[in-house]
Amino acid sequence: MYDVDICVLGAGPAGATAALHLAKAGVPCLVVDRAVFPRDKICGDALGSGVLPELALIDAALPGRLAASSRQLPTWGVHFSAPNGRGIQLPALPAFTPDTPPGGHIIKRLDFDLLLVEELRQRPEVTLLEGVNISRQECTADGRWLVESADGQTRIRARLLLVANGAQSAFSRQVGGHALDPAHHCAGLRVYYRGVRGLHPHNYIELHFHQEFLPGYLWIFPLPNGEANVGVGMLTSAVAAQKVNLRERLQQMLTQHPALKERFADAEPLETVRGFGLPLGSKRRSLSGEGYLLLGDAGSLIDPVTGEGISNAMLSGRLAAATARQALAAQSFGAGILATYDDAIHQNLGRQLELSYRMQRLLRFPRVINFFANRAANNPRLSDAITNMFLNRDLRQQLWQPGFYVRQLLGPRRGPVVRAGIRMVRELQRWWRK
Ligand SMILES: Cc1cc2nc3c(=O)[nH]c(=O)nc-3n(C[C@H](O)[C@H](O)[C@H](O)COP(=O)(O)OP(=O)(O)OC[C@H]3O[C@@H](n4cnc5c(N)ncnc54)[C@H](O)[C@@H]3O)c2cc1C
């Protein structure tokens, strides 16, 4: 039996980040994970632009350690392919030289999560229990949480639970009220390959928006040693409505699609296709209650357009640690004080998730994507914007400015036409919000 103030359930990016920020502030915590690290996690393995700053906030040396690892691959751009087959190459920065900083990194979760867990193992403030599967939780009469492992060997009493046990969290469903909502949930598949032909020399990540998967996409992300992470994500409601067998459809695409079949002709799958869910942050939900906070996937915080969840998970870990410290200082773990976490998440992620959800709804229309892809091929500013959508979330803001589209599409000097266009897009936005 452990009796602690703070227990973190799950040592993925959300839980590990929370525990490391607590440790940095000298606050002890107990971290428990059912896996023994290194462990795999079904994922695209792409680290978006938000991850390096989060790593640096844990420890300024961490981004350098990641970049120096032979297990990661830097990426310098995005290859975007539209439903009409048009492919556009979108460099992260206009000109490439060997010194150009990469737009992101790709690293198997086996290795990335271990990087964080190794930090946890070194911190005296952190007690890490691996291989402990928590299967039961109960709020006791004194307001503390009692959690217990499936084998009954481990029991933990905690005043505050930071729930970071991922997309299948029973706590989120049973206590937090996060039932799986097919309209705000994505089904994802991943399979590692070796020998995919035609990967970009600067390790571009590939996003293939085929009509069959919209508003989701098929991805090919290069990895070190000639391997690639190949997968697909599709809205769970669309999978159900179209009665799709996603595994079969992915296989069909790789073996029959004219743009892919040659590239996969001699490629060797390194595992069977494996699936996992992505709880999307396209719907605002409560993230706290009496004595608990929901972090990362357990709080449904994945970006609804890109499927990116690692950086949001880390951000939520950092904000949860700050709230936990406030609660500890006030010696109060009630729902009132913990609700500041909801506010902090909303302030930091609310706008981004809202914008992404709107974009996701636009991406359901193949003609819209084709239109932008056709234009972007000859319009560097528009192609920059599409790149930023995937590699730079701050710049995503500009994608919801009506003037931006109109200027990209009509050119900067057509004043009255541009103004009329802006009014029209504003009208459309108002209609959309309704
Ligand atoms: C197919 C797919 C592709 C994706 N691609 C990307 C991508 O390219 N880039 C990106 O940024 N995001 C991607 N994501 C999303 C990303 O994987 C998640 O958002 C991210 O892993 C969330 O981190 P987390 O710490 O919240 O949860 P997790 O990483 O799932 O960690 C949860 C931890 O809790 C532990 N745990 C679970 N249950 C228990 C239990 N009962 N008791 C104890 N411990 C438990 C697990 O062992 C695990 O270590 C993808 C997701 C999927 C499914």
UniProtKB/TrEMBL annotation:
Pfam family, one: FAD_binding_3
InterPro entries the UniProt entry points to: FAD-bd, FAD/NAD-bd_sf, Geranylgeranyl_Rdtase_fam, Geranylgeranyl_reductase
Xref: Gene3D superfamilies: FAD/NAD(P)-binding domain
Top-rank taxon, per record: Bacteria
Secretion signal span: none
Residues in FAD-binding domain copies: 3-311
GO molecular function, one term: oxidoreductase activity, acting on the CH-CH group of donors, NAD or NADP as acceptor
Name listed for the protein in its UniProt record: Geranylgeranyl reductase family protein
